[in-house]
Amino acid sequence: QVQFVQSGAEVRKPGASVKVSCKASGYTFTTYPIHWVRQAPGQRLEWMGWINAGNGNTKYSQKLQDRVTITRDTSASTAYMELNSLTFEDTAVYYCTRAGQGWGMDVWGQGTTVTVSS
Amino acid sequence: EIVLTQSPATLSLSLGDRATLSCRASQSVSNYLAWYQQKPGQAPRLVIYDASNRATGIPARFSGSGSGTDFTLTVNSLEPEDFAVYYCQQRIGWPITFGQGTRLEIK
């Protein structure tokens, strides 16, 4: 079955960086773009950016574009999201998701909790 | 940035009732609107894409309508598993944005 498996929870200090991985299986990885979406506690979903898994082209939220980098390794069917210069406001659950059926986000990872704490 | 405003914030209904959830966009998104269901501790699940198309595996009691700036998600004959938070999302403009959510709770 089609699924995404994300890396485990992370705790970082303010100013540090974090890199989250998302391994895809059950479909041809390069066929669909992958989004990264985060959700701070009690907040709405926030789109961070996406990557064309085929050619590696990316697009980022203007709010985060100076701090976020999305990459992929096609040989490993894995996408990555790195966020730099972390602040307390970056504490959230981070999801990878596929732009699939009708360009809707039709498959989601289980989420990775990133906690920024001093 | 396109702002999506959902109403009501909370909807309290009984099993078997019909739920009507609204999403209004700050500018036209054509039909490029999706709906997601999210239960506590879980990732969101795609329910409707392109305003009115049910995603794979979604029961027929779910339907979506609307275009331009006003959209509706209707859930007929509520089942226990339907109680969750629902988000709308637009993909016509960058950045992609989500509404703030409607919590559908059991009365």
Structure description:
In chain A, strand 5 and strand 6 form a beta hairpin. In chain A, strands 2, 4, 5, 6, 9, 10 and 11 form a seven-stranded mixed sheet that branches. In chain A, strands 1-3-8-7 form a four-stranded antiparallel sheet, with no helix packed on it. Helices cover 0% and strands 51% of the residues of chain A. Chain A is mainly β and 118 residues long. In chain B, 0% of the residues lie in helices and 50% in strands. Chain B has no helices and eleven strands. In chain B, strands 2, 4, 5, 6, 9, 10 and 11 form a seven-stranded mixed sheet that branches. In chain B, strands 1-3-8-7 form a four-stranded antiparallel sheet, with no helix packed on it. The chains are: A mainly beta (118), B mainly beta (107). Chains A and B meet through strand 5 and strand 10 of A and strand 5 and strand 10 of B.
Ordered list of secondary-structure elements with their pairings:
The complex is a heterodimer of chains A (118) and B (107).
Chain A: E1 3-6, E2 10-12, E3 18-25, E4 34-39, E5 45-51, E6 58-60, E7 68-73, E8 78-83, E9 92-99, E10 105-108, E11 112-116
Parallel strand pairs in A: 2-11
Antiparallel strand pairs in A: 1-3, 3-8, 4-5, 4-9, 5-6, 7-8, 9-10, 9-11
Chain B: E1 4-7, E2 10-13, E3 19-25, E4 33-38, E5 45-49, E6 53-54, E7 62-67, E8 70-75, E9 85-90, E10 97-98, E11 102-106
Keyword list:
heterodimer, A: mainly beta, seven-stranded mixed sheet, four-stranded antiparallel sheet, 51% strand, B: 107 residues, mainly beta
What is shown here, in short?
Chain A has no helices and eleven strands.
* Helix coverage percent of chain A: under 10%
Which two chains share the most extensive interface? A-B, 21 and 24 residues
SSE order of chain B, as H and E?
EEEEEEEEEEE
Helix content of chain B: under 10%
- The rounded distance between the terminal residues' Cα atoms of chain B is 35 Å
Largest beta-sheet characterization of chain A = 7 strands, mixed
Please state the structural category of chain B: mainly beta
* Overall mean pLDDT of chain A: 97
